[in-house]
Amino acid sequence: MKKEKKTPALLVGHGIPDYQEITPKDINIFIPKLLDDLNIDLNNLEDDLKRKLDNNINLNWEDLFTPIHKIGERLRWSWGVISHLNGVCNSSDLREAYSKQQPEIIKFTSKFGQSKVIFNCLMNIKTNRINNLNETQIRILDAEILSMKNSGVGLEGNNKDIFNKNSQRLAELSNDFSNNVLDSTNQWSMLLTKPSEIEGLPKRVLDNFEKAAKEDKNFKDLFSNSKEDSSGPWKVGLDMPSYISFLTYSKCRNLREKIYKAQVSRASVGELNNKNIIEEILILRKNQANLLGYENWADLSLASKMAKDKKEVETLLEELRSAAFKVAKKEMIEMQECARNEVESNSINLQPWDTSFWSEKLKQSKFDLDQESLRPYFPLPKVLEGLFNLCERLFDIKISKVKDAEFPKWHKDVSMFLVKNKDDSKIAYFYLDPYTRAASKRGGAWMDDCLTREINDKGEKVLPVAYLICNQTPPSGDAPSLMSFEEVSTLFHEFGHGLQHMLTEVDYPQAAGINNVEWDAVELPSQFMENWCLDRKTLMSIAKHWETGEQLPESEYQKLKMSKTFNSGLSTLRQIHFALTDLKLHSEWNQNSEISPDQLRRLIAENTTIIKPIKEDNFLCAFSHIFAGGYSAGYYSYKWAEVLSSDAFAAFEEAGLDNEDSVKKIGKLFRKTVLSLGGSRAPSDVYAAFRGRAPSTKALIRHSGLNS
Ligand code: ZN
Fold it and tell me: Catalytic annotation on 271?
């Protein structure tokens, strides 16, 4: 009998991947092979399309989108499972194989995304077939054209050369920027040796500092081998967890000042100075925008977002700013008073290095909330039950666990769940990988797509499958995973993304679920779900002591609720300061400006900060979100999406959270609009279909306690 050749697990290209069968060795063998195949497919497709265009044959949707999707999906499926495993089952072999193949993947993706022939075909369909397309197809087509245009595919001759050169240079500059931030962060540390220098720091924090000192070979001689107790020395660095812990707990005001000044002046002097890089980035971005026909980089960024224009963003930010400013002033005065009472000195004037410390003190005295002690009230099984019940109430769905033997998994702690309609018709599946695994799992929490809803080649319906990945406390002994309230919120957040992925009713994969949803609207369902964590009915159904079954005491619930808005004037203002600075740098600043980017930031600080930036404060030099990440002229998205999610939740509040009929009715509507339509309609239309009007900042102002 002839032996049939089996397709390697990595190249199956459809269905749920067989995770255990995919090895780092496979990656190095099969990814190059896959890319060879895809390159051939792409070349053939381009030849075929070009021939049709040359012969003046007008293209149909299927002529173009079907083959493009086929190529894209084969790559997404195989590379998607590798990226997934790289995040959840990392090993040095896997990491090595991943980094080895990644540049080739990027190369292919950009070749694909910048294909002139494909672009011409898109334009051909736009010109000749637009009347044959439905609304969803038009949105997919327009988004594709815009994205290709903005990557420069429509440029010719000299302009194209300049554009490509600029792009290359911008990539280098962003890389240099982030390396400088990283190096200057790592270069600085302070060694504490005296007990007086560690006053106020909790044991957990001190243990980490001591560990850091021990791991630093420069300080090896300072430790005697016999010493087991934590008697130092302690090394404090500028990495976020260390920095924040130190500012929050250290009683040494002069050391707080020292670390604060080091933090805010990172990458602003000497060899690692980012100032020139910032100016070059801003100038080049403006040039790029001009070449593409935009007035500035902010206009380019906003062209593919929900926000219509700069004015609309500024209006929203100003509404929040004016509400937050008054409250932030009061919050600062309250902290100032707290400090004066405690240090028995009327002369203390709070400086930026004091605010975290006094904020924590004030919080303790106001709420006395011990987050750790609440964990026994949040066992994972109970939390899941509550979350599923909520979704069943709101969205008319049923969620049940799939038996372990019935699906492939990458780790024993992973579970799979099935989502069904009330009539038992299947909608989707999701994986849940809840616990932290220090050695092999990336930190943070995320939702990713395993499979997207679509109608496949054979005309069969493919059900969406989501990955929900968290990093919460694992079970220990007899106890299940006991979650902090923050971990509960994170789970709800990721579940919100998952709901949008799973409950989509769009059959075009390009716009199903979170695909084709604008950057500034994509956090709507996730933050919306977070709001339910503090809904009394939801929380009280979850929060039961894992051993005694005792309900979370009302007083603790109240503390959780109040602590949510603690100092939210100051934190809102901080986000607005960043958002406005980002927006104005990318729209108002240019090389002929009379002022430097830093001076522009200081002007904005006039009414977006309570304590003005000190002279050492060169925050822009480490503002990686906008100079090395994807947030340029898009930092406002954080607040924008929060406005949407708060306003959406307010629809339930207005009808009454205790009014079960209304809650169900509005929940169904949320499912029919936000969760079902995904990227198939403009987000403002989707929102209006849910809310009956445009979003308003009122609810966020109220939820943040800024309406007093
Ligand atoms: Zn999110």
Answer: no
